[in-house]
Each structure stands twice: as C-alpha cells, then as structure tokens.
Amino acid sequence: MRIRSLAAPALFLAGLVLSGPAGAQVRSVEVRTPRPFGYFLGDLVHADIDLVVEPGFRLQAASLPKPGALTYWLDLRDLDATSAVDGDAQRVRLALTYQTFYAALDARALEIPGFTVTFVSESDHGATTLKAEVPAWSFNVSPLREVQPPARDDPRAYMRPDGQVGPGDPRPLLLGAAGSAALALAASVALARDRAWWPFRVRAGRPFGRAARRIRALSRRPDPTPHHRDALLALHHALDAAAGRRLLADDLGDFLQAHPAYAAEGSSLARFFEASRRTFFGSGPEAGFATLGVADLAALARRLARAERAA
Amino acid sequence: MNQFRSGDAMLTDWREAAGRFEATVGAVVLGQARAIRLLTIALFARGHVLLEGDVGVGKTTLLRAVARALGGAYARVEGTVDMMPTDLVYHTYLAEDGRPRVEPGPVLRQSEDLSIFFFNEINRARPQVHALLLRLMAERTLTAFNREYRFPNLQVFADRNRVEREETFELPAAARDRFLMEIGLEAPRDAEARRALVFDPRFHDTDALIAGIDGDVLDHAALPGIAAAIQHGIQASPAIEAYVIGLWAALVRPGEAGIRLAGLDMEALVQGGASPRGVAFLVRAARVRAWLEGRDWMVPEDIRAVFPEVMAHRVFLEPVYEMRRAAIMPELCRAVFETVPAP
Q1: According to CATH, what is the number of the domain B47-217?
Q2: How many CB pairs under 8 A join A and B?
Q3: According to CATH, where is 3.40.50.300 located in chain B?
Q4: Is A248 helix (H, G, I), strand (E, B) or coil?
C-alpha cells in the first residue's frame, strides 16, 4: 500500500521526462548571406546559418559538412560552429565559407545544396536525436567577360597584368637571422673556450721580464747588498717558470738545450747558479755577492728578458 | 774553488782513494757507473745496500768486486727456503772421530773483523732469517755461544731477484727500512759496454775477473772513522735543511704539496713510511755525495742524486697501487723534485 502511493508520482515524472524529447522541435533555421548576387569565378561566398533548438541539445559535430569539394564547381573552404544559450533555447551559429569555381557565360542563379544537422540530447535513459534541415539556397553568378571578346592581334593582350605583391614584413626574418648569429657566436665562444683558442689561451708568461723589473727595483735601492738574496730568488723563480720545473744548477745544460734562446747566456747563468749555491748552501751571502753582484744580476736578468722577447 | 779547510787533508786523500776505488770497480763492472757511485756513497755512509734487478745483469759480480776492492773479511750466504737463523750462526757437523761438533757459522767465522756480509737472493730466506738480519744490520751485534759478538765494520750487501715471486718471502718493512739504499740494476744501455760484456772473454770468467782486482784500494778498518769525519765535516745550510724537510713533506703527502700524477688519487696514494731514520739516512748519503764531489757543503743536487735509492723503498703505498710501485715511485720522486722549490 505504502509502495503504491510512492510509485504513482514517480511514473508521472517519468512520463514527463520521456514526453520532453518527443515534443522537441527545431525552433528555427535561418540562412543569412551578405548578398545573393554579384559573384564571380573564384569568389568566396560567406553564409551564416542560425539554428535555434530546444535547450539540452548539443550539436553533433560529425553531422556537419566536411570542408572540401562539394560539387565540381563548389568548395566548402571553412566551417565554424559556435553554440550559445539564448534564453530558454539553444542557439547554434554555423559560419560557412564557400568558394565558387563556376565559369559563367551569362548571369545565372546557382544553388548551394542543403544539408542536415543532427543535435543530440543525452540523458540517463538514452540519447535523443533531432535533425535540422538546412535548406538549399541560391545566389547569382556573373561572367567575367563577354562571350565573344573582340579580336586582338597579340594574344597576350587578352592577359591582364599580374597583381602587385605587397612589400611583405622582413622583421621576423631579420629577428631569426640575428638570433641565429647570436647563437653561432655563443657556440663559437664555447668552442674557443673548450679548445683554448685565442681569448682563452693563457699567453706564455714572461717570467724573465718580471724578474728583470723586480731585480732592477732591488738594485736601485740605496743599499742593495741585503737584497741580494731576494734578487737571486727572483731569478730562480723566473728560471723555474721558464723550465716548467724546479731548476737546479746541474740541470742548466738540459735547460739550455731545451731553450736555445738563452744559450748565449750559458756562462752567465752558470755564474749565477754558482753565486746562488754559495749564498744559499755554501759559506754565506758574502761569497755569493763576490761571485755575482746585484748590478750584474740586474744586467743578466735584462739580457734574459730581451732573449725571452725575441724568442 | 771548493777547497776544504786546513786540517781536512785526510778527507781530500780519502776522496782520491774513493775515486780510485770507483775506477777499479768500474773497470770490472761495465756500464754501471751510477750503481758504483751509489755503492761508494753507501760504503762511506756506513749503510747496508740491497741490490735489485733482473737475472744476470751483474748484481753478484758487482757486490763481489766491491767486497774485493774494499778488502777485509767477507762472508757470503745464499738464501734458501729451508735456511734457518742458526745456519748463519752455527756450523754443526760430525767430526772425523765421530763426535758432533758445533763451530761458528758464516757470520761468526771471520770473528769480529767481518766487514762485508753478502746475502745472495735474500728474498728466498724465511722471515726468521730476516729477523736475525734485522738485528745484525741495526745494531751490528749478535748473541752466540753465550756471549755477544760485535761487528763494528760490518756492512750487509744483499741482492734480490725482481722477476721471481715463487717460494720467496717479501722483506718485512722494518728490514727494508734498515737498508740505506735499494739500488735497481739494469743491463747497461751503452752499445760498447754491451758488446764487451758479450764478446770479451775477460768478462766470462767471473772468478778470474774478481781475482784481478787490487785488494787494498781502501783501508776497510779506517772506513768508520772517515765516515764519521765526513758527517761532521760537511755543512748543511738552513736553506738545505728547509729543502729536505720540504721534500719529506711532499713525499709523504703529495696531494697537499700540489703534486698531480695522471690516473692516481694523490690523497690516497701514500700510506706511510718515509721514516725519520730514512730521512736521516738521506742526509747522510747526501753528505757523502757532496764530499765525493769535492764540496764541504751540501747542495740540492746531492739530495737528488741519492733520493730515489734511499727513499723510494721506505714509502709504503696503498695496496691498490703497491703492485704498480715500480712505475709509480720514480714518477713520484721526479714530481717531488719538480715541485719543491730549491732555494
């Protein structure tokens, strides 16, 4: 008893829902064109089609005509569908662009074929479809020329001059070129760094030049004798840097063989090593000073620096 | 120009004797001038020497020639797997009357006059023998027949075959550290010397060759005294002291000294070694070298001339690198000398 009193309203509601689609209508189909006449071979024909259907219906995109050739003289170039809710109705606007290739000999009306658009309303109980017939509509095409044009001597006279091509916009190309150039430059900088090419190559230092400056500064002091040690050390470091290792007195021959630029100074360098040995390891700085004074050291360093520049 | 001070005439005379000694040995052992120079340094530094090298390059001949030219008593043993320490000290046998006898062995037989103890193929002897040798080398004493024997003039020369590893015993680190030098010997590179060694029959009969050496070029009994005089007579300036300490630090911690060798992790290369005793040995040998060069003060070249032989075998590498020691150590020594500033 209780169950029956509940079932009655439910059945009524189901009836309402089912009867909705059955009464569904296409409320209106309207084709709008800018003008129905004055078209020539190759012109684009725009048409807007407004379809108003019951709310809840959705355009089935697969039912729309496909862009492409429709007949031998007509192409559908473009199709754009937009949907909007307009009050209690669903409004769908199709923007169609046709192109006519009909070479008319006289002014005549051509018919663009109609098509069917399907709308779908889906619910829990199933889908309801609704078909809207878009009617065929016609427009007038006109010929481009007379049927029998006057005779010309030169057949080229029939031809019309080519249309002018606009100057075009070079900016994207320039931007692309500039970007590529910047990229190439960055890549070559990276390559130069990797290969230690010019700006990244450490220039061979000039240790003797540095030592010559330092020893000259020391020799100009009022009393250079106490700086003898420093002057010797400066030249030692220069020799070490030039040889790439620590150079001892016994290595002088090998060094001169490997760096013939300094061969002329062989005997002076031997005297320098003798002085250095005596100063650092032998009887004391006095003996070293007697062997090679600061002024002689400065002169030797200057000559070595000159040989280094020449090398 | 490098004159000794007055009163050092004895050192000058001895330097000439050392030159004669080198010439005498060099006439017999061809193409090994460097090894002979190092052996001379070791003699005057009173250090023990381990010769290492290939088979048949003249290790034994060189040591026999040195022993002969030095004069003095000389004993020789051959290392074998079954040798025991007592074999060096005692000689046991059955006498003609059938009774067992115990007499002094090779070490004691020459009594305390023994100046060179020559241990052939030392790595064939067992660690027990090495242990006996350790005391003999470190303290120059031995206890036998209930008394202590002293060998004030003793120098141990040993040689070792580098090729064979079967049935050999690696010298313990402590024993290796007591050798002043470990000298690597290679066949001479000089074509003339090679030809003479192969074709001159004089070099084929080693016994006759050694017997031809003049036996008293040096007075072996005076060596300890002259060695001490050299050590006192040769000066070390503060600069050379700083240099040696710098070398030491660079050898033990090459990574910190800025040494980089290709393919080696410098932070984990050297495990230890390079003991203070080793560095003291280094300075001792360098002093002798300075004396042989006619100076009474040391220069870095003296250190460099003896460094690889004195120091390389005292450095213990990480086990990963130990097998490549022969390739790594010369590189490391070279890099140390290229890195540490001399003055």
Answers
A1: 3.40.50.300
A2: 44
A3: 47-217
A4: coil
Interface test with A, best of B4, B338, B339 (most A CBs within 10 A): B338
Is the minimum CB–CB distance between B237 and chain A shorter than 8 Å?
yes
Element (H, E) at B250: helix B238-252
CB-nearest partner of B342 from A244, A246, A283: A246
Q: Which of residues 221-240 of A touch B (CB under 8 A)?
A: 232-233, 236-237, 240
State both tokens at B189: 């590179």
CATH 2.60.40 in chain A: give the residue spans.
24-141
**Confidence (pTM):** 0.65
Token pair for residue B75? Answer: 């004993």
Over residues B41-64, mean pLDDT: 83
Q: Which fold has domain A24-141?
A: Immunoglobulin-like (2.60.40)
Query: What's the CATH superfamily of B234-339?
Result: Magnesium chelatase subunit I, C-Terminal domain (1.10.8.80)
* DSSP assignment letter at B314: G
- Whether the complex's predicted ipTM is more than 0.90 is answered with no
What is the per-residue pLDDT across A159-179, written as a single tens digit (0 to 9) for each?
888 888 878 888 999 999 999
Task: Give contacts of A240 with chain B, Cβ < 8 Å.
Answer: 341
| Model confidence pLDDT, tens digit, residues B262-318 | 777 777 778 877 788 888 888 888 888 888 888 888 888 888 888 888 888 888 888
Mean pLDDT of A46-54: 92
Euclidean distance between CA atoms A281 and A218, whole angstroms? 22
Contact in structure between A117 and A132 (CB atoms under 8 Å): yes
Mean pLDDT of chain B: 82
**CA B318 to CA B330: how far, in whole Å?**
16
> Where in chain B is CATH 1.10.8.80?
234-339
| A137 vs B: CB within 8 A | no
- The alpha-carbon gap from A189 to the nearest alpha carbon of chain B, in Å, equals 29
A280 interaction partners in chain B (CB closer than 8 Å): 237, 239-240, 343
Which pLDDT tens digit goes with each residue over A88-110?
Answer: 888 999 999 999 999 998 899 99
